[in-house]
Every structure is written in C-alpha cells, then in structure tokens.
Amino acid sequence: MEAITHIFDELNGMEGILVASKIADRVGITRSVIVNALRKFESAGVIESRSSGMKGTYIKVLNDAVFDEIEELKRQNGRN
C-alpha cells in the first residue's frame, strides 16, 4: 500500500503523467512494485492508464473515492 500512497501523492489531482522509475528511486522501492500497484488499480476500475513511452504513464482517476481511502491510510500510518 505504500506504493499507492506515493503514486497518488505524485499524481496530485485527477490525472497526470507518472514516471514509475522516478517514484521508485525517490521512495526506495522497486519500479515493479509501482507498476504492479498501477495494474491492480486499473483492473479494479479505479484508474485508467496509457503509456506515454519515455515520458511516463498517463494516469486518469476514474473513482475519486480512492483519495479518501488513501488519506485514511496515511492517518493510520502516521503520515500526512
């Protein structure tokens, strides 16, 4: 779940471009963890994603209830 909080922190809104390797490097987890989290959220219908090649991945949030859930996770983990 740590990967998800970092993904949505980086997204900073309902849509945008994410570079998985940059997020992974910054927070000290592997790129595959970020990519797998994105895939799970896409298969659950929470996000839509489209590769933008070397620029990253375009992400669009389809279910904004996810933001409330992420904020709750952050509170539970003592992270604002």
From TrEMBL:
GO terms for biological process: negative regulation of DNA-templated transcription. Coiled coil: none annotated. SUPFAM superfamilies: Winged helix' DNA-binding domain. Pfam families: HTH_CodY. Residues 15-74 form the Global transcriptional regulator CodY C-terminal domain. InterPro entries: CodY, GTP_trans_reg_CodY_C, WH-like_DNA-bd_sf, WH_DNA-bd_sf. One of its GO terms (molecular function) is DNA binding. Gene3D superfamilies: Winged helix-like DNA-binding domain superfamily/Winged helix DNA-binding domain (1.10.10.10). This is GTP-sensing transcriptional pleiotropic repressor CodY. It comes from human gut metagenome.
